[in-house]
Specification:
Length: 291
């Protein structure tokens, strides 16, 4: 079946919206703001910042919604993190971190520009067609108010679109029979995933668990190689099918925005994220197969 070109266009739009959302996770501003409210551990700060819209949930809810983190790591920090700071305090700290991060990476002039206001309007319009059912992270974020400042409204909308697609992606991974570690390993093998050293440092899995998952994928005929993991033809088809299904599940917001709107949003988003990347938003070796 020939892929729908509009779905490829929507994916390109997502690919420049998602990193705009993600800049704060790699920013020293998040650590500083979270430490100021009593959350000093980096993993705890991440779990709290991303799950706070769901309220003071337990480890099980976070593990389920995040999918590829080891439950033992999550349980080490959740729900204990809510004793240090309430979800409301965490959301306020996250907003301050996002604001300062974007001011540093994008620049005051760009944040105050008519292009930023236009990007916010387009992205928010796309979110009008997002749906809550079976999308816990999206649904929780969708209950938050839209910020007044255009750059924060744009970040909020990018977050909604990112989590909407992400929730659908987890359903696709589950349907493909990939457990959390296998999902990570197979993504690394595409050459587009986070480098193993970052995964092992942040997701809680040991090297032995990572290697065992690679072994299971080899046994299924999906993976080949030892140090340089490579997808077989069957593995590549599986990962391609996951992305295609994710595209299908995320079709509505971009169809609602329309072809011209998606093209314009992609253009604007590309410019903003390009500036952020040029100003060091992410580690230079974040993506790749290197251990």
């Amino acid at each position: 079946m020939t892929p729908d070109p509009r779905l490829r266009t929507a994916r390109r739009c997502h690919n420049v919206l998602n990193p705009f959302h993600s800049t704060h996770y790699f920013s020293p501003d998040l650590g500083r703001e979270m430490a100021a409210i009593g959350v000093t551990d980096r993993n705890a700060a991440y779990f709290a910042a991303r799950s706070a819209p769901m309220g003071a949930v337990g480890a099980g809810a976070v593990t389920a919604a995040f999918y590829n983190f080891k439950h033992d790591l999550v349980a080490r920090h959740v729900p204990a993190v809510w004793q240090a700071a309430s979800p409301e305090d965490v959301l306020a700290a996250r907003a301050r971190a996002v604001d300062s991060t974007l001011r540093r990476l994008i620049g005051e002039e760009a944040l105050a520009s008519k292009e930023m206001a236009e990007a916010a309007e387009l992205a928010l319009r796309a979110t009008e067609a997002c749906t809550r059912h079976a999308r816990p992270l999206y649904a929780a974020h969708a209950d938050l108010p839209v910020p007044d400042q255009p750059h924060m409204a744009y970040w909020h909308a990018a977050t909604l679109l990112r989590e909407h697609r992400g929730d659908g992606h987890l359903a696709a991974l589950l349907g493909a029979g990939l457990d959390p570690v296998e999902a990570l390993v197979s993504h690394v093998a595409t050459g587009k995933g986070m480098a193993p050293k970052f995964l092992l440092a942040t997701r809680g899995w040991t090297r032995e668990e990572y290697d065992a998952a690679a072994g299971r994928l080899r046994a299924r005929g999906l993976l080949t190689g030892d140090e340089d993991l490579t997808l077989t033809e069957e593995g590549a088809q599986l990962r391609s099918g996951i992305e295609t299904l994710t595209d299908e599940l995320d079709r509505a917001p971009y169809e609602h925005l329309g072809d011209a709107g998606v093209a314009r949003l992609t253009e604007l988003a590309t410019g903003f994220v390009g500036t952020a990347l040029g100003n060091g938003a992410f580690p230079p070796d974040l993506i790749g197969k290197a251990a």
